[in-house]
């Protein structure tokens, strides 16, 4: 059975009472999300952009909650925002990527929220720093929050890419390894930056067993005051969700378990063999290091390295392995050999 995905939908920003209510009604009809989102205070990269409608938007969202029964959620960026959303009956908030990058702000928000009945969503910081993300989660845990959900919204790409932010999936995978009790959901809208790519990013997140999606949706995306290119209509959200191949996280099927166990045992054996071989390889490069040292020869021998890299990539190609993977693997191994040989000089 396909698992239930947590779904958070709504516009990037609350803009007017009609826009918020109309979007929420359509979302309820088409996808019935678990939360209705809208930004009230918008952290914009540049001044003079639309910076959010402010407190009056919270009253509109309160109407959404009362009318549709969908719980509402918004972004907070400082302690006073917590007090204000509490007045409007919010039971959930998220901390945005720019705020998560500032531990002072995260601590201040956590202390203001202390003792409150909030579900806390913490986006990844804009820079690919896993410790900063974990640190923000830890600050809330230490204050006494258990109900924390991490939101993967991608990382600043530093170069022109088709995506607005890079998913860097290895980072949420590492977060899941370090903090297995934290649910992770994906915000494919801010990764994609353009509605054309939201589906493929959402599918990748599902394939990584993420627990849900935060998708920006606007009743009339063309008129949106922020992030208009990446917002879907509620109907498009439904179409996107229908197109996803949703996998279950595990099954309780005896045959499946026996088969997986057999293959995983084989993988375990091969992994240990790989490590044994690596150990032997480093023992030899260390011997080579000693010979270079006794003959006063430089550690880096670029011609030999070129030949090693080319021949291994060529062989990888013949085996049908990814040459990029093999190049990256050997570059790491070579870097370590050079480091060790240099250290022992
Ligand atoms: C948002 O969700 O509208 C938003 C501003 O997100 P982020 O902090 O991920 O940029
Ligand atoms: Mn947005």
Give a structural overview:
By secondary structure, the protein is of the alpha/beta class. 53% of the residues lie in helices and 10% in strands. The protein contains 13 helices and eight strands. It has an eight-stranded parallel β-sheet with strand order 7-6-5-4-3-2-1-8. Helix 2 links the parallel strand 2 and strand 3. Helix 11 crosses helix 13 and helix 12 runs antiparallel to helix 13. Bound molecules: phosphoenolpyruvate (PEP) and manganese (II) ion. Manganese (II) ion (MN) binds next to loops. Manganese (II) ion binds next to loops.
Q: What's the short story on this structure?
A:
The chain has 345 residues and is of the alpha/beta class. It has helices at residues 17-30, 56-68, 79-87, 97-100, 103-113, 130-143, 170-178, 188-192, 195-207, 234-243, 254-294, 302-319, 323-343, and strands spanning 6-10, 35-37, 72-76, 92-95, 119-123, 148-152, 183-186, 212-216. It has 13 helices and 8 strands.
């Amino acid at each position: 059975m396909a698992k239930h995905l947590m779904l958070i939908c709504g516009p990037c920003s609350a803009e007017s009472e009609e826009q918020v209510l109309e979007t929420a009604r359509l979302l309820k009809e088409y996808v019935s999300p678990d939360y209705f989102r809208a930004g009230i205070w918008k952290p914009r990269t540049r001044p003079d952009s639309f910076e959010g409608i402010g407190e009056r938007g919270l009253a509109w969202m309160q109407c959404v909650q009362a009318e549709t029964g969908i719980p509402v959620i918004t972004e907070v960026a400082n302690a006073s925002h917590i007090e204000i959303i509490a007045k409007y009956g919010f039971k959930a908030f998220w901390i945005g990527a720019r705020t998560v990058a500032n531990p002072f702000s995260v601590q201040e928000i956590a202390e203001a929220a202390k003792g409150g009945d909030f579900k806390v969503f913490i986006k990844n910081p804009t820079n690919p720093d896993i410790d900063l993300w974990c640190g923000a989660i830890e600050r809330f845990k230490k204050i006494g929050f258990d109900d924390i959900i991490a939101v993967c919204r991608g990382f600043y790409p530093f170069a022109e890419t088709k995506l607005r932010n890079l998913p860097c999936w290895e980072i949420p995978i590492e977060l899941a390894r370090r903090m297995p009790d934290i649910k992770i959901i994906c915000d494919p809208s801010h990764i994609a930056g353009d509605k054309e790519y939201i589906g493929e990013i959402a599918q990748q997140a599902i394939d990584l067993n993420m627990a849900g999606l935060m998708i920006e949706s606007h009743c009339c995306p063309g008129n949106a005051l922020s992030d208009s290119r990446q917002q879907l209509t509620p109907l498009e959200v439904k179409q996107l969700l229908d197109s996803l191949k949703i996998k279950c996280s595990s099954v309780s099927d005896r045959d499946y378990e026996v088969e997986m166990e057999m293959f995983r045992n084989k993988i375990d054996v091969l992994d240990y063999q790989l490590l044994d071989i690596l150990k032997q390889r480093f023992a030899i490069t260390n011997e080579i290091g000693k010979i270079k040292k006794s003959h006063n020869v430089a550690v880096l021998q670029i011609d030999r390295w070129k030949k090693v890299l080319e021949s291994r990539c060529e062989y990888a190609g013949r085996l049908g392995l990814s040459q990029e993977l093999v190049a990256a693997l050997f570059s790491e191994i070579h870097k370590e050999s050079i480091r060790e040989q240099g250290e022992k000089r």
